[in-house]
Design a protein that fits this description.
Number of helices: 28
Helix content: 40-55%
Largest sheet: 7 strands, mixed
Structural class: alpha/beta
Radius of gyration: 29 Å
Strand content: 5-15%
């Protein structure tokens, strides 16, 4: 502990007679009314500063893969199994370790299975409870008792605390410890207690969860992921492009609504829309069956896994018609947005008026291409962007359905309250995709409704714009622009969430020539391989520290082809490894988790997850391989983190309060009980 009586501290604290500083101290003294209270808090904070830093987990591009995402949280990306092996590797067989880990991940269902075959349940409970106490003690060792206490279930908090801080190895307390375990079993609480202990292990194994965007689309469980996150203690989200288009849909942007529906139909994933958010799709079904009844919509057949028994040929045909119907509506709605916002410079993406509907061709960049699908019953060649009366009625109904979905609006509120365009945590700059840059490596200025910004200022401005779309106090014109702007964020060339020359959705559907499908990436994707460029960006976002990094998602890393997720001499890490099943063939893996613990960074590479049922029945786990990215020369403590800076500031203020008490600037008060 530092002495506040030495000359350096006297010089530091004796200036506290200034009125503003005195007012701060008077407010602080309400919580710490005397020297004893202030000193006790300083001792407590100094002790916390010397604990090991908590474990941070970074994941990106989850894309609705609820089962795999949930399992990774339950097993802490393999960290729980590593802890169990460290504790019991010399005394338990691998099969027993696998069973214990399976119990920790899925305690309720696993216990039901065990009860069907176990012949001596009391003995099983006694052994398991003793094992779980050791695991909880291990994962809680880097936290204060106060923090651990907050993670405990209220009904069992006292008993768990007693078990954690006593040990059967202490001969004086052996009977006490053993009797607690015996009484838990005797009173019939063993199963509930085991489940509570397992949940505590899961909760304490990850101190902070960072999600670098794209919770939505492709997989069927985005709504379940957000349900789970709403109950999760510590997490943050950096918005991805797929999140933004869903947020735009929730804000009432009709083009975003059409896009969300189109992508859901493309992957035959209607679960999130219908079961998750209660979106009424009957009007779309009715419209599609009538407008496209004579169309096989062959180029709009959903992408489903081979052997998928969930969809019959009849249901796939229906989904294909719905898919084409909403795609055509999206292209019409896009055109209206580009006309309304010429400042976006996206008129080149108005393609419906470049079609020769008689010949069945389209003119692009001076070249004529045949269309592989020429059946457009709802398009008037003389006015191709006009919605038919039926289409307009359908759009109005769908928009109403999105706006009144309480569940969707609650989830978007979570995205807003825990999310942003970027985050800076413990020397790491997190954002989903890119920072718009010029070819020379300078930051690109982007105009947003008359305001030009670049770099950090740009992302801050976009964050404000996103929130404006959901504000009840916004000016009507500004609110409407903010709602429209979601579309630019989804597909605009200078959007930090897209950053490509164009989005070739129309070309991919209607033109065979793959040259027209190409989407040229922005300069960031090349420049980010340069360590000096990464340092410039880290400076721009005021990221401090000698070991600082940029962490991205968005672009799947083709690990199967030898692509390395670690770039720019370790300054940048791309952790989109393809959580979504749709990407497994491309990446060759099933996602990454980046783990930042007190000794450094580890990149965990996951193989495809089978199912929770197999994990419960057979102890099947995600197969992971670990790559050491960076190790610290010393074990990082809380004092080395952002939280440590905050705690040190509190200590400094309390030291000032001590000085004020001891030199009569403020008077101590007695604490009354």
């Amino acid at each position: 502990m530092r002495k506040i009586t030495d000359m350096a501290n006297i010089q530091k604290y004796k200036g506290m007679t200034m009125d503003a500083d005195r007012r701060i101290l008077e407010l602080l003294s309400q919580n710490f009314p005397n020297i004893s209270a202030a000193s006790t808090e300083i001792i407590n904070l100094e002790a916390i500063l010397n604990l090991p830093k908590g474990t941070e987990h970074f994941v990106a591009d989850v894309h609705g893969e609820y089962e795999a995402f949930r399992h990774i949280l339950k097993n802490a990306s393999g960290n729980i199994k590593r802890k169990v092996k460290e504790l019991f590797g010399a005394t338990m067989r691998d099969s027993e370790i696998k069973e214990l880990c399976s119990l920790i991940y899925y305690p309720g269902p696993k216990l039901e299975l065990i009860k069907q075959t176990e012949t001596n349940l009391p003995n099983f409970y006694q052994i398991t409870l003793n094992q779980l106490v050791k695991v909880v003690r291990s994962v809680s060792s880097k936290y204060t008792r106060s923090k651990v206490r907050k993670a405990l279930p209220r009904s069992y908090a006292y008993i768990i605390e007693e078990l954690l801080h006593e040990t059967p190895d202490d001969i004086k307390k052996q009977a006490y410890f053993n009797r607690i375990i015996e009484t838990i079993i005797l009173t019939g609480q063993a199963e509930d207690f085991i489940e509570a202990m397992c949940n505590v292990i899961q909760r304490l194994s990850i101190d902070q969860l960072h999600i670098l965007g794209d919770i939505f689309d492709r997989g069927p469980g985005a709504h379940l992921i957000l349900d789970m996150l709403m109950e999760y203690p510590n997490f943050d989200i950096q918005w991805g492009n797929h999140d933004i288009v869903w947020m735009g849909a929730a804000a009432g942007n009709a083009a975003c609504i059409a896009c969300v529906l189109r992508m859901s139909l493309r992957y035959a994933n209607m679960t999130t829309l219908e079961e998750g958010y209660g979106i009424n799709l009957v009007p779309l079904v009715t419209f599609a069956m009538e407008a496209y009844k004579d169309d096989d919509c062959r180029y709009f057949m959903p992408r489903v896994e081979s052997g998928d028994a969930a969809h019959t040929d009849k249901t796939l045909q229906l989904l294909a018609r719905m898919h084409k119907a909403i795609a055509v509506i999206q292209f019409k709605l896009e055109g209206a947005l580009y006309d309304r916002h010429p400042e976006w410079l996206m008129s080149d993406r108005k393609l419906l008026d470049r079609v020769d509907y008689a010949k069945g061709t389209i003119m692009l960049d001076g070249k004529e291409y045949p269309l592989r699908d020429t059946h457009f019953p709802t398009i008037d060649p003389a006015d191709p962007y006009r919605l038919t009366a039926e289409e307009k009625e359908l759009v109005d109904k769908l928009r109403h359905s999105f706006l009144v979905s309480d569940k969707l609006q609650a989830h978007i509120h979570t995205m807003l309250s825990h999310g942003s365009m970027y985050g800076v945590y413990n020397g790491n700059l997190l954002f989903h995709a890119s920072i718009p840059m010029n070819a020379d490596g300078s930051l690109m200025e982007v105009d947003i409704n008359g305001t030009k910004a670049a770099g950090r200022e740009l992302l801050n401005h976009i964050g404000s714009m996103v929130r404006l779309a959901f504000s009840d106090d916004a000016d009507a014109a500004e609110h409407d622009y903010a709602v429209d702007y979601f579309w630019y964020l989804w597909s605009g060339a200078k959007s930090p969430l897209f950053d490509k020359a164009k989005m070739t959705t129309y070309e991919r559907y209607f033109i065979e020539d793959k040259e027209t499908h190409k989407e040229e990436k922005g300069n960031y994707y090349t420049l980010r391989n340069d360590e000096a460029v990464c340092d410039m960006l880290l400076d721009e976002f005021n990221v401090k520290g000698s070991h600082r990094h940029i962490i991205n998602g968005h672009v799947p890393v083709k690990a199967a082809k030898g692509e390395n997720p670690i770039k720019a001499n370790g300054k940048l890490m791309v952790i989109d490894g393809g959580f979504a099943k749709a990407y497994h063939d491309t990446t060759g893996i099933a996602g990454y988790t980046l783990v930042f613990h007190s000794r450094g960074f580890e990149l965990v590479q996951h193989e495809p997850f089978t199912s929770a049922e197999k994990a419960i029945l057979n102890g099947t786990d995600i197969v992971s391989s670990n790559q050491i990215v960076e190790l610290s020369a010393h074990r990082m403590r809380v004092r080395d983190t952002d939280k440590g800076v905050e705690l040190q500031s509190q200590i400094d203020e309390l030291m000032q309060l001590l000085y004020a008490y001891r030199h009569g600037i403020l008077h101590e008060r007695a604490v009354r009980f």
